[in-house]
Amino acid sequence: MSEPAPPTAAPAPADATAPFQDTVGDADASAARAAMVDRLMQSGDLSPGAVADALLAMPRQRLIPQAYVRRSAPDETPPRWDLLDWSDPVHRPELLRVLYSGDSVSVQHDGEPLLGRRAGSREGGAMTAMSSVMGMTARLLGQLDLRPGQRVLDVGTGAGVTVAAACRIAGDAGVVTIDRDAHVTAAATVRLAAIGHRPVVVTGDGELGWPERAPYDRVFVSFAVPRVPMALVEQLAQRGVVLMTVGTSSPSWPALAVITKSAAGVVEAELRAEQFGHRAGWGWDRLSLSAAFRQEMSSGDGVTSHGHRPPPPDEAHGMWLALDHLHPGLVRAFGAPGLQIGSPACGSWLRVSVDGNGTSTITASGPRPIREEIQQTAARWKAAGEPAFYRLEFDANGTQWASSGRGRNRLSWQLTDDRPRTTEDSR
């Protein structure tokens, strides 16, 4: 595989326009925007302050004037989507709901150019750029503690929501956004200018950062990585903060890496177990459960045994995070009744139901001892003090370790970058 081309700053386009004024439909968008912000506050994902003000001021229908809606069932193949366009009055009611629902918004199909597209249907392929779920984005922007005058690096431009918020709070002059897809950066340059923002927009590998404007007070990565890209840490200013999702080949148990650099230049980091995280970045095709495999896990025959101690609850995010790293290759079937976990690589699965007497019934199939892996990890996690976060340590050789506890009770694992380039299994 060839090395990525050196990053290049995207030039400002000639057709960048002044900020839009409300036209027909924009008043409705303003009301929908206010309602979305109110929902985020009610859920606890957003607090009054700079981030809330930025989201209230962000006309998403101008920043994301086109978006996809899926018309096929989740497991239907080939998948089918419709591209909606705000310039078409017929599309506006549905697009308004999509943009301000708070859900993720798909904006690019199979790496296509984003500018000059015609609305209509698409079939097959996959979505390759999106705006993340707003609850998660709002929480992370709040944790980032953006302030006026800060230098901000937004890694993974996507639909431009986080960079627009950073510009609103910190000011355009200190903000850089980078994405490896030239179609994404070209569209972001035009659409950010259309709502009055002109940050530096760069086409390049975000994991390498953008040293030309370093150091940065804040670095925000909007895609998941298997380990921390050290270039981003090196480009962090004193008293700076980096936030990014760290995960494995499984999407089920993400973590948030929080990295700080003190006034003396000392780097400290921790890995916080989270319920939700960003999707995998470019070149990382993570595991999934097919419809047939989920059906087998839900109702298939296996070896059933009774009277087991129930596994740790879903809220024990630190335990499940440890399981994901110590015993990789497992995927949780969220939304299924009870606990259902499968190993797509070998076809093994586990189904757990809690009995009325406080014990659980377990049905398992396949060669992998998933129940024993959970038990062993739970015991080590309890001995380490049931941590919800882990120290993240970097050594001079580039090795990265997550750990908690001391001595015999230490629970730890090494972060490695073994991103597969193709789907590991089609189950």
UniProtKB/TrEMBL annotation:
<dbReference type="InterPro" id="IPR029063">
    <property type="entry name" value="SAM-dependent_MTases_sf"/>
</dbReference>
<protein>
    <recommendedName>
        <fullName>Protein-L-isoaspartate O-methyltransferase</fullName>
        <ecNumber>2.1.1.77</ecNumber>
    </recommendedName>
</protein>
<feature type="compositionally biased region" description="Basic and acidic residues">
    <location>
        <begin position="416"/>
        <end position="427"/>
    </location>
</feature>
<feature type="region of interest" description="Disordered">
    <location>
        <begin position="1"/>
        <end position="22"/>
    </location>
</feature>
<feature type="region of interest" description="Disordered">
    <location>
        <begin position="401"/>
        <end position="427"/>
    </location>
</feature>
<keyword id="KW-0489">Methyltransferase</keyword>
<keyword id="KW-0963">Cytoplasm</keyword>
<keyword id="KW-0808">Transferase</keyword>
<dbReference type="Pfam" id="PF01135">
    <property type="entry name" value="PCMT"/>
</dbReference>
<keyword id="KW-0949">S-adenosyl-L-methionine</keyword>
<dbReference type="InterPro" id="IPR000682">
    <property type="entry name" value="PCMT"/>
</dbReference>
<feature type="compositionally biased region" description="Pro residues">
    <location>
        <begin position="1"/>
        <end position="10"/>
    </location>
</feature>
<comment type="similarity">
    <text>Belongs to the methyltransferase superfamily. L-isoaspartyl/D-aspartyl protein methyltransferase family.</text>
</comment>
